[in-house]
Amino acid sequence: MTEQRLLLATTNRGKVRELRKLLRGLPLRIEGLEKYPGIGKYREIGKTFEDISRGKCLFYSRKYPGLVLAEDSGLEVEVLGGRPGVRSARFSGPGASDEKNIQKLLKLLEGMPSSQRRASFVCVATLGGQGRLIKSFRGRVRGLILTEPDGKNGFGYDPVFYYPPLRKSFARLRPEEKNLVSHRGRALRKLRRFLEGYLKNK
């Protein structure tokens, strides 16, 4: 297999770390957007994770001479009608941060029992190249929202996302543990299997 270039179309350092680990060992020279300051910035438009993931992939694949991996992911809380959803990173408004987003979420769920705190992390990862989409992959993991943050690992809503099978929040999992069960890990394993065959034929 000849080594190809792959652009990770995200500026989120936490996501970049996870994506690099999940793709380790493939014959790919993985690059980040920070290497291409003049490439432009995609303006996220769309109502679903699929819309944004595919739109982002097309935008960067028209400007990058290799493969592009774009993903969109976020948290869906049942009692909030699926919010924050595609607005997960911007949930608390202008100047949003992980801490502010978590505080807003906990305020909205204040006093609710665990039966009303069901939530899912969702990820849609899209592979593309030369201005066309190749394939999209979806991953989902179900859990509960805690009443307060627990743990220091991960990023985003990890400190308040409790995963019942392991009896821990995502922020208490080691990166290797999280990648085995997370929404991003599930989507990227599907992508990795596809890439192994795709790259052999290149």
TL;DR of this structure?
The chain is α/β, with parallel strands linked by helices and about 200 residues long.
Index terms:
seven-stranded mixed sheet, alpha/beta, globular, 7 strands, 202 residues, 5 helices, Maf protein
Task: Kindly describe this structure.
This protein has 202 residues and is an alpha/beta fold. The chain has one domain: Maf protein, CATH 3.90.950. Helix content is 30%, strand content 26%. It has 5 helices and 7 strands; from the N terminus they run βαβαβαββββαα. The chain has a 7-stranded mixed β-sheet with strand order 2-1-3-4-5-6-7. Helix 1 packs across helix 5. The longest helix is centred in the last third of the chain and has 18 residues. The model has no long low-confidence stretch (mean pLDDT 93).
| Intertermini distance | 7 Å
State which percent range the strand residues make up. Answer: 25-35%
Residue share in helix = 25-40%
Q: What structural class do the secondary elements suggest? A: alpha/beta
Average predicted local confidence, pLDDT = 93
Shape: globular
Number of distinct helices: 5
Q: What is the C-level CATH assignment? A: Alpha Beta
Helix-strand string: EHEHEHEEEEHH
Total beta strand runs: 7
Stretches where pLDDT is under 50 for at least 5 consecutive residues are: none
Q: What's the number of domains?
A: 1
Strand order of the largest sheet: 2-1-3-4-5-6-7
Named at the architecture level, the CATH assignment is Alpha-Beta Complex
Main beta-sheet strand count, sense and barrel state? 7 strands, mixed
> CATH topology, which one?
Maf protein
